[in-house]
Amino acid sequence: MLVTLAAGCRHTEGIRFRYRTHDGTESERSVEPLRIVHTGRRWYLVASNRQAWRTFRVDRITLPELTGSRYENPRTRSSWLPKAPESLRGTSSAESASRPRLRR
């Protein structure tokens, strides 16, 4: 699973997967992945759904697949990530209150 998520991040290729929320509800998600981030004892996928930046717990993702659709790498834009997703603020992975430290 991590290989597929990492490939999407590296090759700026969309990913589709099933996601289970904290209450057990499952849904299909389609995103543009940016990075896989480790914080605390969990791994997260940081991705855009074209409306907002989102974080997804990797242990709640199933059946990830690359979609074949490519997108512009947001890191090439001058303001690629204006502020950290709410779910990452105040964690050990945050470089500051406004930008997460993202690991490869």
UniProtKB/TrEMBL annotation:
Domain WYL, first and last residues per copy: 2-62
Highest taxon in the source lineage: Bacteria
Organism whose genome encodes this protein: Kribbella ginsengisoli
Region listing for Disordered, in residue ranges: 67-104
Protein name: WYL domain-containing protein
